[in-house]
Amino acid sequence: MSLAHALVRRRRQLVFGALTVLLHLIAFDWFSGQLGRVREAPASAPRAPMQAQIIASTPEAPPAPVAAPPPLLNFAPPPLPELPPEPVEVADQPAPEAAPDRTPGPGTDAVADAGAPQDTPPAGAAATGAASAGQPAAGSPAAGSPAAGAPAAAQASAAAGPQAPPAPGPAQLLPDPRRYKVELPPPADITLDVARVDADGTRWNGEALLAWSRAGQGYRIQVEAGIRVVFTRVNLLTLTSEGTLGDDGFVPTLMTEKRRGRSQTATHFNRDAGTLSFSASQAKYALALGAQDKASLPLQLSAIARGDAKQLSGNIEVLVGEDRDASVFTFTVAGQETIDTRLGKIATWHLVRPPKPGSYHSRLELWLAPDYGWLPVRIRNVEASGAVTTQTASNIQMKETGTR
C-alpha cells in the first residue's frame, strides 16, 4: 500500500469520527430540552352552559315506627326453692308419764354412735340401736329436756348465719370382731390380670400388682392397678399399707390411697389413742383388734386361713378402714372351687362378702389357694351399678425360699 493511499484512508476515519461525535452532541442536546419541557394540555372543546331548575319536593310520609324486638327467652333453670327452717320443738310439750323401755332388740346394737354430729353422720355408718327402734339417737335432746325448751336460742342461732363445721366427736364404737389364730402368708409379689365390664357393657383390660414384704417386725404392702397402653401400664390406683406384725397378724398404722387425677388420702390407725381417723373426713372410730385396711385385708384373710382353716366356718368379721370411713366386713365361705388361671388350674376356697345395707353396697369375693400359701389368686368386685372387676393371678413370685 502506498503512502498516499494510507493518508487518504486516515483522513476518512477522522472525518467519520468527527461526524459521529457531532451527531451524539445534537441528540443529547435535544433530549435535555425534552426533559425540562412541560407538556401542553390539549385544547378542550368549549363547555356547554349548565341549566339549573328548582323543583318543589312533595313532603314524604314519616317512616313507620320500627317494632321493638321480642324479649329473649330465658333458658336459665329456675332458682332452687329455699329449704324450710329446721323444726324447733315446743317447750310446753307434755313429758311422758313413764319412761319407755329403751332396751335394744336383737341385732340392733351393731353400732353405738357416741356423740357424732347428728346432721352429718359419717358415710357408711350403720344405724344405731336406738334409731333402729324408733327412739332418739344418743346425743340428741329428748322431748321435755332443757335443750328442747329453748326455741328462742335455736332461732337466734339460725339467724346468726352458717356456722363452722363441728369438731369431730368422740370415736364411734363398732362391735369387736372375733379374734382369730393367724399365721402370716409368705411374702410374695402377685401379678394379676384385670378384666372389667362397665355397667353399659364396655370392656377393658389391665394389670395389677399385690406385693408385700417384711423387715423385722415391720411390713409394707403395695397395690397397683392400671390399664395396658401399648407396651406400658398406666396406674389408675395405688394403695400402700405400713405397720407392724403381731399376734393378730397385720397391724396397720397408715394406709395411703392415690387415684389418678385425685389427691392422696390417708387413713390413720392411732394405736396410742386407740382411734381410727381419716384425712378425707371427720369420722372417727374406736380401734378394734384385728382392724385392717383395704390393702392388708386380703393377706389378713390368708393369715386367718393359714392359722386354722376351721376358722373359715361361719362368719369371718374384720373391721376395715377405707379412705374416709370404716365398717365391719363380714365374709362367708361359698365353697371350694377349682379355677382356671394362666398358672393352670388352682384349687381354692371361695370367700364372699355380700352387700350390707347402710355400710357397703358392693359384693366382694376372694379365692384363696392353699397350694400357694393361701394367698389370694382371684379378687372380684361387683358394684351396685352392675359393673364387675375381676383380678386373676398370672404370676406369683415368692420372696422366701421353701414356701409355697
Largest sheet: 15 strands, mixed
Percent of residues in β-strands: 25-35%
From the 3D structure, determine the CATH topology of the domain at 188-398: YmcC-like fold
The overall pLDDT, averaged over residues, is 74
CATH architecture of the domain at 188-398: Beta Barrel
- Bin the helical content: 10-25%
Q: How many distinct beta strands?
A: 15
Count of DSSP H/I helices: 4
Q: What structural category arises from helix and sheet content?
A: alpha+beta
Which outline best applies? rod-shaped
Order of helices and strands: HHHEEEEEEEEEHEEEEEE
Distance between the termini: 130 Å
CATH class of the domain at 188-398: Mainly Beta
Instruction: Report low-confidence residues grouped into runs of 5 or more.
Output: 35-45, 69-168
Arrangement of strands in the largest sheet: 8-7-6-5-4-3-2-1-15-14-13-12-11-10-9
Report the C-alpha radius of gyration, rounded. Answer: 47 Å
Helices, strands, pairings?
Blueprint: H1 3-36, H2 129-132, H3 151-159, E1 188-197, E2 203-215, E3 218-229, E4 232-246, E5 249-259, E6 265-270, E7 275-278, E8 284-286, E9 292-293, H4 297-307, E10 316-321, E11 326-341, E12 344-353, E13 363-369, E14 375-382, E15 388-398
Parallel strand pairs: 9-10
Antiparallel strand pairs: 1-2, 1-15, 2-3, 3-4, 4-5, 5-6, 6-7, 7-8, 10-11, 11-12, 12-13, 13-14, 14-15
What's the quick description here?
The protein is an alpha+beta fold and about 400 residues long. It has a domain at about 190-400: Beta Barrel (YmcC-like fold). Helices cover about 15% and strands about 35% of the residues.
